[in-house]
Amino acid sequence: MAKKLFRIAIIITAIPSIALSQFLPNLTALSETIKPQVSSIRSLNFIQPFTIRYQTNAEITAFINDEFNQTVPQTIRQNYDLLIRAIGLYHGGIPFDFEALIRASQSQIGAYYYPANRSINIPTGSIPIQELRVIVVHELTHVLQDQHFGLDRLLSATNSDKLLAHQALAEGDATLVEYLWSLDRAGQAMSDAQLQQFINTIANTTVDEVKRNLKDIESDPQVVQAIDETPDFIFEQQLGIYFRGLAFVFALKRRGGWATVNRAYTNLPMSMEHILHPDKYFAGESIEEITLPDLANESFAGNWELLDRDTLGEFGLRIIFNTFDVNTPSHAATAGWHGDQYVVLKHRDGAPALVLFTTWDTEQDATEFKTAYEDVLEIKHHRSTDFRIEQQGTDVLIAESSRDLDLLFAYLEKVRFTPTVALEIFDFDGDHIVGFSDFLMFAAHFGTSSSDPDFDPRFDIDADGMVGFSDFLAFASAFGKQIARNSKPAIVIDPHIIHRTLGFVR
Questions:
Q1: What CA–CA distances, in Å, run from 496 to 150, 194, 286, 317, 417?
Q2: Exposure b/e, 326-359, CB count within 10 A at least 16 = b
Q3: What sign results for the dihedral spanned by CA atoms 429, 430, 436, 442?
Q4: What is the rounded distance in angstroms from the CA atom of residue 228 to the CA atom of residue 212?
Q5: Mean pLDDT for the stretch of residues 368-372
Q6: Checking CA distances to 386, which of 21, 34, 328, 396 falls within 20 to 30 Å?
Q7: Angle at the Cα of 358 (from 357 to 359), degrees rounded to 5?
Q8: From the CB of residue 130, how many other CB atoms can be counted at a distance below 10 Å?
Q9: 467 in helix, strand or coil?
Q10: In this predicted model, what pLDDT tens digit does every residue of 211-269 receive, in sequence order?
């Protein structure tokens, strides 16, 4: 089961509580009217049946609670506040435990598409008809994604950073379609340059702007309180998935139309670094898959309980720098990220520990990160000496603990990591194994170059403009390997309230 903080946060920031209404539009009829419009914009056809239905707030809340119960381990639930503070995602004065997270989610319930039963589920309530149409457009795009690319596969990532990148692809795609649909309905044609400027503005929306605008349009004092008490990292995650995802998908579309967007569902972004920097995705830039040693083999392990092990990525590290508001801008402090893994531990006396191994493109990148992170540590530990940070070439090692600090740092120094292009890149048919059918697909494109009409960049592993021998060697190194699956059910929940904060949907 997933132990991912960022995965837990996906259900926050959705539609506010709404009053029940006896006059509800027929969703099936509305969907049938909008389907051809979405199909035309997205250049994909609907090929399978699906359902669209209303659910009461109570039914959606029960579904969300069930998801929490199935996917979040007790160690996370019981130690949530300790965990997010240890990582550095939160350092507010109000404890934010797991029950607070559930309360926040219940106050902001959203529409969602559930691939397991191919259903769009929309809250029963007095949603203005134009806003309801936008919701349906967004969710119908998820239906198309699921039918053509498989959202379960898309969301079966092996760490939180990679999962966020995959979600950003799906949500950015659906958000772009809804904006294009809204512009078309309003008769507001935009050039690519104008649309780029518009999307850049959206992508740079801040958490403070979102919170302020949410409270301006919300009349329920309990919802306003929930907005105030929800940690910024949860809002930042949503902005990253939807708005940075929007900018990424638009960059794909500008490069080669919807066909290039479609190919991204096979050649998936490997990390949020690819979402934040589409040029790195186009260049096929790899990351380092960091693997911290097995704790069971360490002499100090008997004193510690493992709470979480995961990857922060450039995006997660940006959030940490924003949380502590250091002098160095977060984008500058995290530039050149190349891989990381952290472990959060809890001592038998209740004291937390964080060990974090990061690696960077260059020694200069590593030095800049280390310098900025030292400022975080000073604030986080109130000028105590309960941490150790050290640079070793392009690697920066960090241990934070009031117990066994030297032992934890020695544990970090045993890290082994593997330079990799993620195995998913070679799984062209999406069956979670790099096998013979993938080889046949690769062989069919061998020898093609970017000047050929049938060139497919999925098979140009080294991004040199030709599917050649170096690409074959890379494929051969992955042949026969299986790709780990994740058991987290795929849920796609639409927080369209964010769109209203921009004044785009009325």
A1: 23, 23, 33, 26, 40
A2: bebebeebbbbbbbbbbbbbbbeeebbbbbbbbb
A3: positive
A4: 10
A5: 97
A6: 328
A7: 130
A8: 11
A9: coil
A10: 888 788 777 787 787 788 788 998 899 899 999 999 999 999 999 999 999 999 989 99
